[in-house]
Amino acid sequence: MMKNYIFIPVISLFLNLILSTEVFAYKYGLGSCLDQRFKQDIWQSIKKENIDGFIFLGDNVYGDTPSGKLSKMESAYKIQQTKLPEWLMSEKEILAIWDDHDFGINDGGGDYPFKKEAQKLFLEFWKIPGLDPRSTREGIYFKQTKQIEDLEVEIIGLDTRYFRSPLKGKKNPYAQNMDSEATILGTEQWMWLETSIYNSTADVIVILSSIQILATNHPYEKWDNFPMERERLLGLIANASKNTTILAVSGDRHRSGIYQNDHFVEITASSLNKPASKNIETDPLLLGKTYPIKNFGILDIEPSKKKITLSIHDQNGFKLNSKIINLN
Q: Of 65, 134, 183, 268, whose CB count within 10 A is highest?
């Protein structure tokens, strides 16, 4: 009988060792540019990644018209509701910002006359509760804090449409808007963003921007169309990165890529089902190359391994590129 009791603490110790090596983590899928009129086979590969949540980065439906009227937007949302998989919408955390095609007009900004109505449709579709600040203020910017093991992670979603000043010049390429009064975020959102970052106690801050922050070479929409706004944002991030890990996530481009400057990494995840033309694109801050194919991104936060992994995957789930951010 004594021999049986001798094995009990040994077994207990063995089980404790197994349990102590368990890694707790949180994984987001990332994507943008999801046309409700096209097939969405990519969700099968995303499901295999066992994500905990998904971040929609804009152009989540294509409901814009040249006139800006929202009749197409309403029908686009109705169709998209039938296309998004049930396992995603009912079982996973969903975060969303918008870009021009779910804002209401191509390359649209603050002068869009139906932006309040567009915001109402956005809030209804994504089931944003009435107590959420987005329900009572202009713009769909938001923030939320999540505790992942001993890591505090703050996600800040920006609205790059509602307050944006007009673009300069002709499309592709737009001219840089050097007006000192020109803005992407608007006065109130800038104050909110700066206060949020200055007062943040988070170990990691994830900034969501529908348009790219770091890329400068391409002729399409980007923060660099407003150089002073971009410098203001880069300065804010540079200062915060002294004590906090910062990363950015963007969409819009119908091609994916990973970019890095001295202070943060940006992943662009685009497009889920509407790929771009296959021209080669370069940029001084680009790591590797861009991928103008159907793709999705992954943001994998693993505090126990002291790392965050950003990765790009094709429609079959094959990893195309990745970047590991080591945590202190």
A: 268
Whole-angstrom Cα Rg for the chain? 21
The dihedrals phi and psi of 89, each to the nearest 5 degrees, come to -75, -25
117 lies in which domain range? 25-326
The answer on pLDDT for 23 being more than 90 is no
Give the CATH number, domain containing residue 302: 3.60.21.70
Classify residue 138 as exposed, middle or buried by CB count within 10 Å of its CB (0-12, 13-18, 19+).
middle
Give the chain's domain count.
Answer: 1
308 forms bridges with which residues in the sheet?
A: 301, 325
Distance CA 294, CA 255 (A): 8
Q: Do the Cβ atoms of 114 and 70 come closer than 8 Å?
A: yes
Is 14 among the domain residues? no
- Residue 8 within any structural domain of the chain: no
Residue 18 lies in a domain: no
What angle do the packed helices 115-125 and 71-83 form, to 10 degrees?
20
- Cis geometry, peptide bond prior to residue 165 (ω within 30 degrees of 0): no
In-domain check, residue 1: no
Q: Which residues of 100-121 are buried (b: 16+ CB within 10 A; e: fewer)?
A: bbbbbbebbbbebebbebbbeb
Q: How confident is the model at residue 328 (pLDDT cuts 50, 70, 90)?
A: confident
Name the helix (H) or strand (E) containing 10: helix 2-20
Residues linked to residue 144 through DSSP beta bridges, in sequence order = 155
Q: What is the pLDDT of residues 151-168, one digit of tens each?
A: 999 999 999 999 999 999
* DSSP letter string, 22-88: PPP-EEEEEE----TTS--THHHHHHHTT-SEEEE-S--S----TT--SHHHHHHHHHHHHHS-HHH
Q: What is the pTM of this model?
A: 0.93
Q: Kindly tell me if the per-residue pLDDT of 24 is higher than 90.
A: no
